[in-house]
């Protein structure tokens, strides 16, 4: 049986992009870190697959880009959106000032496995799979660790800092009593997969029709499909019957007719409830929330993975040194929030604008019309560089400032 209690410098809960990147960067800087992941592996269908140029640039700064690009992926240099009968070219990433001028479409489990493998080079990097954080350990109003359930039973992990990176339904955020603002969403997403054929045309970014929206992500041998419906509309979709749902999908992408019957029952279709929220304060003494635990993002633009990674880099840049010297203070945690609040707020503002002005009205039955700005992007190619920079790099992109102890003299 494993030890019932362990001690580390930093305990990160959640093995998603934020948690794994932070754990890797802290260990790379010489900080002892334990990452808890409640599942046995990283293989889950319903996770973001878009690795944006900002994240690829971080791989370059870490000296890992060549190795990273050997992981199977597809390149997306330009993005289009179809609104009703109008198809518009929206952005062109080929002019970005980055090493990789494209979005890499890579299954998230491959990305997380890559980070885990990189972390194994450092003796202070520890990942505990099938271990779920269930509660905080507090002393005199300060968080000093977490309680968790693992393969061998209950475990107490004592740490100078606990980082909650356990997603939008964060257990630790709830236990800490941190308050946030819910900005609402007019949509939910139905996820399913259909066979990919070599003759299929590439699809990405979105096809909006009156009453529906469909996004298809190329995972080489199958399409991961996201069918967007009005918020809380799953019961109505089911009431219409599976045949009617298949017909709605075919209306958006008729070439799927030869495989639509792969949706044999509602068990093949999973509901993802969309939320957009943000904590007012991301921390308490001894605890910091990052990624979706601090700010749930809309799936619009596929930026969630990259915002989470940016949070992790900002946190590592600020926290690695005080964690090593055991001088971490509340001001350090506030500094991470201050650094990341503006880019998160601006990104959510753009997502909410898209939701409320385009997707929401279309899902409610209004005939969708492309905004004038979208038409300008389509008509004047040079303007496509503007949304490309916003989507590809984001607001205030982070850079690696932490050291690598293996390359130190």
List keywords for this structure.
FAD/NAD(P)-binding domain; 409 residues; 2 domains; 7-stranded mixed sheet; alpha+beta; 27% strand; 33% helix
Topology:
Blueprint: E1 5-13, H1 17-28, E2 33-37, E3 50-51, H2 53-61, H3 65-68, E4 74-76, E5 78-83, E6 86-92, E7 103-105, H4 108-119, E8 125-129, E9 132-139, E10 142-150, E11 153-164, H5 171-176, E12 180-182, E13 187-195, E14 207-209, E15 212-218, E16 222-230, H6 234-240, H7 242-252, E17 270-273, E18 277-279, E19 283-284, E20 287-289, H8 304-325, H9 330-363, H10 372-379, H11 385-393
Parallel strand pairs: 1-2, 1-11, 2-8, 5-14, 11-20
Antiparallel strand pairs: 3-7, 4-7, 5-6, 9-10, 10-11, 12-18, 13-16, 13-17, 14-15, 15-16, 19-20
Helix pairs in contact: 1-4, 1-8, 8-9
Shape: globular
**Which structural category fits the helices and strands?**
alpha+beta
Beta-strand percent range: 25-35%
Q: Number of DSSP strands?
A: 20
Number of domains: 2
What is the CA-atom radius of gyration, in angstroms?
Answer: 22 Å
Which stretches of 5+ consecutive residues score pLDDT under 50? none
Look up the CATH topology of the largest domain.
FAD/NAD(P)-binding domain
Give helix % range: 25-40%
Name of the top-level CATH class of the largest domain: Alpha Beta
Span between termini: 39 Å
Q: Would you give an account of this structure?
A:
The protein is α+β, with helices and mostly antiparallel strands. The protein has 2 domains: 5-80 and 104-183 and 276-355, FAD/NAD(P)-binding domain (3-Layer(bba) Sandwich), CATH 3.50.50.60; 187-230 and 232-273. 33% of the residues lie in helices and 27% in strands. The chain contains 11 helices and 20 strands. The strands form 4 sheets. Strands 1, 2, 8, 9, 10, 11, 19 and 20 form an 8-stranded mixed β-sheet that branches. β5 (78-83) and β6 (86-92) form a beta hairpin. α1 (17-28) packs parallel to α4 and α1 packs parallel to α8 (304-325).
